[in-house]
Amino acid sequence: MVFIDESVVAGSRFSLDSAHDPDVGKNSLQRYTLSPTDHFTLNELSNSDGTKYVQMILQTPLDREQQEKHTLILTAFDEGNPQKSGTIKITVVVIDANDNAPVFSQPVYRVSLPENAQMGSTAVTVSATDKDKGPNGEVIYSFPQNNRKIMELFTIEPSTGDIRVNGLLDYEKSKQYELHIEATDKGGLTDNSKVLVEITDVNDNAPVISVISFSNPIPEDSAPETVIAMLNIKDIDSGKNGQIRCSVDSDLPFRIKFSSSNFYISPILKLRTSACSSCFDL
Question: According to the UniProt entry, where is the signal peptide (predicted)?
């Protein structure tokens, strides 16, 4: 059995054990052959006493990822009559070299998370494969850029590629995050990818009412449609979660109108005061 590193260059030589033939002259060992010859050729040499020995020469590079073992047959011949020969099987085991970098399954990963995603929950699992064997094929995942904001919100499990929520997400602060990720084998070769995290809105904000102006007291002869208060109401949620509907108690003689940016409160009818209706709570 011969062990050869796959990084060995073409032209490298490997000595083989010589055959032994006790006969003399033409009846002794005369030549060798090797088959198959896809990767190796033979170089026959002679010692000073006339005995022959052989070297195996690598003519095309080996690739463990394509073929880990090669079985060769070395045959020794004499030139007697009848001709006799002997054979031996040579197993070439290709030793892995770190000649393959990890490769991510996707150049870009996309994931959507609600802004109330629980801390510790898995956002996405990234995966990279390495064709090498043993430590050369073991992959470690990491965030290559020391981005404090990203590292406060997300973590990555080095051995599995699980990316987990590590902080409080807030759609109103950031709607998307771009995470750069790196896979490194134990020989130092790397590949890079990125994860685009889209944050979806949750109805986690109540409307906020601000009184811009307010007339108080109100003259009892105030005409209908007289503006007695102007309000600004905001909800920082998005979509339907941020849409506002504003109303006053139907028993009160007021109504609310909406303009492009504010709400207005005005009487529906001309006001008349009495002992029990001189004050209104809006």
Answer: none
Q: How many domains does the chain have?
A: 3
- Residue 131 dihedral angles phi and psi, to the nearest 5°: -70, -15
List of long-range contacts for 21-27, beta carbons under 8 Å, 24+ apart: 21/76, 21/78, 23/78, 23/80, 26/78, 26/79, 26/80, 27/78, 27/79, 27/80
Percent of the chain with pLDDT over 70: 92
pLDDT, tens only, 177-194 = 999 999 999 889 999 999
What is the Cα 137 distance to its own chain's centre?
17
And the tokens for 254?
Answer: 């007021």
If we measure between CA atoms, which residue out of 3, 74, 65, 63 comes closest to residue 39? 63
**Residue 89 domain-assigned?**
yes
Residue 9 sits in a domain whose CATH number is 2.60.40.60
Query: In the sheet where 85-95 sits, what is the strand order?
Result: 2-5, 85-95, 69-78, 29-35
Q: Which residues contact 217 (CB under 8 A, 6 or more apart)?
A: none
Closest CA to 234 of 246, 224, 226: 246
DSSP class of residue 160 equals T
Are β-strands 85-95 and 69-78 bridged in parallel, bridged antiparallel, or unpaired? antiparallel
Does the residue 282 lie in any domain? no
Q: Is residue 273 part of a domain?
A: no
Domain region containing 233:
208-267
